[in-house]
């Protein structure tokens, strides 16, 4: 039977409802695959709905929004507080000393080298590939692989402390971000092929988006993000901060950190960011999002 590669409003509601209840993305992907959804499609769509920020904004809209973001920031909307991130040149976690290469104060952004060893990067990619492969057992006669080739970015998730290896990374990342492990969402792995990109977006859930409410119920607002690069990208694929005129080149094991929600729940629109298109090679990242409260 032909695999399903589109999503009905009923399935959309089902996804939002179950994500809101705290079901793991992988469990939802499994159900969809069982119900004859194309595995890569299921993976991409669950990823899309698991972060309402993933709604790709047209470049024009992002540009038009830029002015008002600057104006809003200039009018002093967001109150900066002492960063969650600790000061100093080196941040010591239980198993690693991580160098802070650069910091920006407003918004709070930092760059780290060597958050992950090369072996850990390779292992995360290997585990993710295996996972995607496992859920992509497509009948070879359907020829669905062509559709998969068209998809320029897809991902998978690990639940917090899923294995000893993941737990070790979750702990290190939480110590680096100076925020409790249990407030973290499971590590998300993303793979972009040539042309793959992530249009400028906010990682927080805008209060005014109707879709945000379901996300905010579990763990509250997102407060900070760590994007870790799992490989060197031949060309393209930088993480861009359009409001800051800044680009971070992907470097294996390195990471960019930013925080955007203060203690009163205000969010900082200057943290608008995106992943520029990969021009040559491919790009693998691992992302950790932290919440205000325990996330389950
Ligand atoms: O691909 C990138 O560099 C950015 C990724 C990102 O924005 C995210 O995972 O939230
Ligand atoms: Fe993001």
UniProtKB/TrEMBL annotation:
Keywords: Dioxygenase, Iron, Metal-binding, Oxidoreductase, Vitamin C. Residues 183-292 form the Fe2OG dioxygenase domain. The keyword Magnesium does not apply. Gene3D superfamilies: q2cbj1_9rhob like domain. Its cofactor is L-ascorbate. It comes from the Bacteria. Signal peptide: none annotated. GO terms for molecular function: iron ion binding; L-ascorbic acid binding; procollagen-proline 4-dioxygenase activity. The keyword Metal-binding applies. This is 2OG-Fe(II) oxygenase superfamily protein. It comes from Amantichitinum ursilacus.
């Amino acid at each position: 039977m032909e695999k399903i590669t589109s999503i009905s409003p009923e399935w959309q509601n089902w996804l939002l409802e179950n994500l809101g209840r705290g079901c793991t993305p992988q469990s939802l992907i499994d159900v969809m695959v069982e119900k004859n959804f194309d595995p890569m499609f299921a993976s991409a769509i669950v990823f899309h709905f698991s972060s309402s920020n993933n709604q790709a904004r047209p470049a024009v809209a992002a540009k038009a929004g830029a002015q008002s973001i600057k104006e809003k920031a200039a009018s002093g909307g967001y109150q900066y507080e002492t960063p969650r991130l600790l000061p100093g040149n080196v941040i010591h976690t239980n198993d690693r000393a991580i160098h802070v290469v650069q910091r920006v104060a407003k918004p709070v952004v930092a760059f780290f080298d060597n958050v992950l060893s090369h072996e850990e990067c390779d292992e995360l990619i290997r585990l993710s590939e295996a996972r995607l492969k496992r859920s992509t057992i497509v009948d070879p006669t359907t020829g669905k692989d062509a559709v998969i080739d068209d998809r320029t970015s897809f991902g998978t998730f690990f639940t917090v402390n899923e294995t000893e290896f993941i737990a070790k990374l979750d702990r290190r990342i939480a110590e680096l971000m100076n925020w409790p492990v249990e407030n973290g969402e499971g590590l998300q792995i993303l793979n972009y092929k040539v042309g793959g990109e992530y249009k400028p977006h906010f990682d927080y859930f805008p209060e005014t988006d109707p879709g945000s409410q379901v996300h905010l119920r579990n763990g509250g607002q997102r407060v900070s993000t760590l994007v870790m690069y799992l490989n060197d990208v031949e060309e393209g694929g930088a993480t861009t901060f359009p409001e800051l005129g800044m680009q971070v080149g992907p470097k294996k094991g390195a990471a960019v950190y930013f925080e955007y929600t203060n203690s009163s729940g205000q969010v900082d629109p200057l943290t608008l960011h995106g992943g520029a298109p990969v021009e040559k090679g491919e790009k693998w990242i691992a992302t950790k999002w932290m919440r205000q409260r325990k996330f389950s």
